[in-house]
Amino acid sequence: MDINLLVKLTARAWSLPILANLHQGVPGRQAPLLAATGAGRTAFAASLVHLAQLGLLERNPGHGHPLRPEFRLTASGREAAAMAARLLGTVPCADGALLRRSWTVPILALTGQPRRFSAIRSELSPITDRALSVSLKQLEDHDWLRRDLDLSQRVPFPVYRAANLGLDLHRAIGLGRG
Prior knowledge:
By secondary structure, the protein is of the alpha+beta class. The chain contains 10 helices and 5 strands, in the order ααααββαααβααββα. Keywords: DNA-binding, Transcription, Transcription regulation.
């Protein structure tokens, strides 16, 4: 999975929990998935549509009622679902809300090695400076990200690197980046 698909995938809060539950064998119908994720109906429905648009889910032909369809993972959806299950299995329930935020997973995917703010922003092209700053601060506050000063240059600058649980999450994402 590339970083652009990861950004699109995490744009909806309930995408990762839906995929993880499907990976763990929860039936692809709305009621069991709603119960397993704890999502609200509107946000849940928007996430299902979003996953189908990304090509990670499809309607299961011949199953379900037209108003209550059954969904199944596509081939690329199975890979994403396995990654989602690894991520959610790594995080304690109390920190699940932070994992559902749009930029948490993409930022952690990029910060296996120390990265400057500008390098993170350029790889996550649709992110605004403010959204990146807020996300980095939240990850720092949860101790998932470490901010250090690089003094090797004439002008010192901060670098960010996944740490503690953030490093475990970086490995669980498995984009093949350092």
